[in-house]
Specification:
Radius of gyration of chain B: 21 Å
Radius of gyration of chain A: 25 Å
Helix content of chain A: 55-70%
Shape of chain A: globular
Strand order of the largest sheet of chain A: 1-2
Order of helices and strands of chain A: HHHHHHHHHHHHHHHHEHEEEHH
Distance between the termini of chain A: 15 Å
Strand content of chain A: under 5%
Largest interface: A-B, 76 and 57 residues
Oligomer: heterodimer
Helix content of chain B: over 70%
Number of strands of chain A: 4
Largest sheet of chain B: none
Number of strands of chain B: 1
Chain lengths: 635, 201
């Protein structure tokens, strides 16, 4: 090959020329077509986060209607059928459409930036996963507005969810929503694992991976092994009305507890899909706001991995009142208490880091401290309900509702809000307002505790979950009213957040590259980052690379500047091993998601939809796979 | 942020095989999650078996011949599968073409037998929970079989086009062979579970 035919390399260009050239190569076309075809992890990650926050609002509104109904005894605002749909929609939305997607996909945005690469491992799969998730969520809510919202609780226990008790196709709608969201969740897990394993910047050995990325990796592995359980059982559930399968039909050898085992084998780790990435957010924020490296980095990594493993040995504690053998119950009590040990290790490491640090009392840190307080309360009641005698008393009461909200909101949403305040400047190039941030925090703290703390007492007084009303003589009216007031204050805190975001996007202070003087690589890029993330790939020398190299970041060159190219590195030492190309934008992921979603939707009503859908599905996937002759497809 | 260059990756190859390739890890991850699905479906079968003695539940034993033939055909395909992967690593296009045509035939043959395997279970899916469990297991594996045969056929066609002589395509061939191993190996425990566990238990 002659020298003239040699591809253009980054080493031949100065910084400005390289930056603009790569921005063009890695950029997304403007307009609707670009919007449909993009494979940029930042655009898709942001889209995931915004969509999940929209579902948070819908789930929150469902909660507010329920709280209005329960605000006084003998209320007739809504009837039992709508109430059943509302609590199911609330739980299903918050778990499957908000909390898990948002915490699993913040890494879609951040992981490539934090590990010093230019995209995720399978960018088109990433695009596909988003569309499938969106269509699944929209299907669930459209069904609800047509009075076909699922109504058997977010965990959809049989026999209540079985064909003989189901109204219309409500349970099948739930089951198919699971197929969509889990398909998308599994695809994201695969991308995150491969991205973290094989695409880390040179020098980012295992002990230099940011803790947030470790948390994302552990979560992705948990998703990989737990989500198939819910796909298996929801498929079984759908096959019941669709084709007359008998898995849960006790008259024909089926067993209703099989459902509970399969569901909770997924459902308990699912709580940790929320908690583990949330701890990753906390571990990212604390060093930045204490301006010192995290105390006990190896202990935190081991705690994350231990939590991941232990979370698979806890599922039976959701089933203590189903009459299981005593020995089994004792084992699951022990494992449920054991999981508080790695959680405790992390909390002590965070406190130790904060203890000697020069703390900056900004909104992200406030939310982190709020998380620690609320989560510890949820953790303590968790240790209580891990004990079989206590659980037997409070099972299916508001005590459990209080516990799970302290764990999920305290342990998931507070860190998420901390993360929003922390990374918003990176995503949008604008700072959020600090005064509104403080209002947001204190309203959230007050509203959340006012809404959920009284539920502990209501539960101990015997108020059961999932009742649409109660009689005045029960004496639960006062605490329920307090809880309803708290729920509205909590909701108001999100209105403040929304106002803060809108204000910031319009006239917020411009964010510098690294407004918090943090040490991880995402802060080395501009705010917001350019399409290529890094024009020159950094070389990592420390767990906080920017603190180790405050003046100038070491980099490698030699990548092509005429096509999308990035570095594949070795698993343990992150030694560069291949210069790999990265796919261009494509319409095929969207087309594949459309065809897949239509087929899945059709199969709620008839098994024939699978036959009809098979051929278009095959066509779009072949179209996706077939080479188009782009430079990125050359070897 | 300012940068300074400390090294170069210019001399690195632009494609890697096996664990140096992203797709190999992606395939491994998909095998892990699908393997979890198989284990859980098998767990459901064993659970139903435990709560419903005697097993099979109100049903004759399944006829093991079609399943055995599928197992033998799948095992017989493994040498050619591995040779095809080896030829792909050596970038020997003619042999890869031969291997993929052979693997397509090795994929279609067990699919034809699988068609007869469902009725040989001697029970319908809607008769009882035992019927549901065996149809579910067999259907789950059949889905994997169909998907990988489809993938092999498309890849075989692709390797006869102008896109064939390309490191990335040879990588696709090795990954496809890797996945076929998974399809073959997962059949063995499911085969034992459907046909032999009820005979032994």
């Amino acid at each position: 090959m002659s020298a003239a035919a040699e591809p253009l390399r980054d080493s031949a260009l100065d910084d400005a020329a390289l930056q603009s050239r790569l921005a063009q190569i890695w950029g997304t076309a403007p307009g609707f077509w670009g919007w449909l075809t993009t494979v940029d992890h930042k655009l898709i990650g942001r889209r995931y986060i915004i969509t999940a926050l929209c579902f948070l609002v819908l789930g929150g509104l469902a909660a507010l209607v329920m709280r209005l109904q329960l605000g006084r005894p003998d209320n007739t605002l809504i009837g039992p059928d709508l109430y059943d749909q509302l609590f199911t929609m609330h739980g299903a939305t918050m778990m499957f459409l908000f909390a898990v997607p948002v915490l699993e996909t913040i890494p879609v945005y951040l992981v490539p930036l934090m590990i010093g690469t230019r995209n995720v491992a399978f960018p088109r799969l990433n695009a596909f996963s988003y569309w499938v998730y969106l269509f699944g969520g929209v299907m669930l809510w459209v069904a609800f507005f047509f009075n076909s919202g699922p109504d058997a609780g977010w965990f959809t226990y049989v026999p209540l969810a079985s064909q003989e008790y189901d109204v219309g196709n409500r349970s099948s709608i739930w089951a198919q929503m699971i197929t969509y969201t889990e398909l998308s969740g599994l695809a994201v897990a695969v991308e995150i694992i491969v991205t973290v394993f094989k695409m880390r910047a040179p020098g980012m050995t295992l002990d230099r991976i940011p803790l947030f990325v470790w948390a994302a990796l552990v979560t992705a592995f948990m998703v990989l092994f737990a989500m198939p359980a819910v796909m298996v059982c929801s498929t079984m559930l759908m096959l019941d009305p669709l084709l007359g399968f008998r898995f849960f039909d006790w008259k024909n050898g089926g067993d209703v507890l099989l459902w509970q085992h399969l569901f909770w084998f997924f459902g308990h780790p699912e709580v940790y899909f929320i908690f583990i990435p949330a701890t990753g957010i906390v571990s990212a924020i604390i060093p930045a706001f204490a301006q010192r490296k995290m105390f006990g980095y190896p202990a935190i990594v081991l705690a994350l991995i231990a939590t991941g493993f232990l979370s698979f040995g806890l599922w039976v504690h959701h089933m203590f009142v189903t009459g299981l053998p005593r020995l089994g119950e004792s084992f699951f009590t022990a494992s449920s208490m054991a999981v508080s040990v790695p959680a405790g290790v992390q909390i002590f490491c965070w406190i130790a880091t904060l203890w000697g640090g020069a703390l900056r009392w900004r909104t992200p840190l406030l939310f982190v401290l709020g998380f620690i307080v609320n989560f510890v309360i949820g953790g303590l009641t968790g240790v209580m309900v891990a004990s079989v005698p206590i659980d037997t008393q409070v099972h299916d009461t508001y005590f459990v509702v209080a516990h799970l909200h302290y764990v999920l909101i305290g342990g998931g949403v507070f860190p998420l809000l901390a993360g929003i305040y922390y990374w918003f400047p990176k995503l949008y190039g604008r700072m959020l307002d600090e005064t509104l941030g403080r209002w947001n925090f204190w309203l959230a703290m007050l509203g959340f505790n006012l809404a959920f703390f009284p539920m502990h007492i209501l539960g101990l007084m015997g108020m059961p979950r999932r009742v649409y009303t109660y009689q005045a003589e029960m004496g639960w009216g006062g605490l329920n009213l307090l809880s309803t007031i708290g729920a509205f204050i909590f909701f108001a805190s999100f209105v403040v957040l929304l106002a803060n975001m809108v204000r910031s996007l319009r006239r917020g202070e411009t964010a510098p590259d690294n407004p918090w003087n943090a040490g991880t690589l995402e802060w080395a890029t501009s705010s917001p980052p350019p399409p290529q993330n890094f024009s020159r790939i950094p070389v990592v020398t420390d767990v906080e690379p920017l603190w180790d190299n405050p003046q100038s970041l070491p980099t490698v060159d030699g990548l092509r500047a005429d096509r999308r190219e990035l570095i594949v590195s070795t698993l343990v030492d992150a030694e560069p091993s291949v210069r790999e190309s990265s796919p261009l934008p494509s319409i095929w992921p969207f087309a594949a998601a459309m065809v897949t979603s239509l087929t899945l939707f059709g199969s709620v009503f008839t098994a024939r939809a699978i036959e009809w859908g098979a051929i278009p599905i095959a066509i779009v996937f072949i179209g996706w796979f077939w080479p188009k002759g782009a430079r990125e497809e050359e070897s | 942020m300012k940068t300074h260059t400390v090294g170069s990756v210019a001399d690195l190859p632009t494609t890697g095989f096996d664990s140096a390739a992203l797709t190999w890890w992606g395939t491994l991850a998909f095998m892990s999650l699908e393997g979890s699905g198989f284990i859980l479906a098998a767990g459901a079968y064993l659970y139903l078996m435990a709560v419903n003695p005697p097993w099979p539940y109100h049903s004759p034993l399944p006829n093991y011949w079609p399943g055995t033939i599928v197992a033998l055909l799948l095992l017989a395909s493994l040498p050619l599968n591995h040779l095809t992967a080896k030829w792909a690593r050596a970038r020997d296009l003619a042999k890869v073409q031969f291997g993929l045509v052979g693997m397509s035939l090795f994929g279609i043959a067990p699919l034809i037998v699988r068609w007869f395997e469902f009725p040989a279970l001697n029970i319908r899916w809607d008769a009882n929970a035992y019927g549901s469990a065996v149809w579910f297991l067999l259907g789950l594996h059949a889905t994997h079989l169909v998907t990988d045969v489809g993938d092999t056929l498309v890849l075989a066609a692709l390797m006869f086009t102008r896109h064939a002589n390309n490191g990335r395509r040879f990588g696709d061939v090795t990954d496809n062979a890797f996945y076929w191993d998974f399809v073959v190996l997962t059949w063995l425990p499911i085969y034992a579970l459907i046909y032999w566990v009820p005979r032994i238990a």
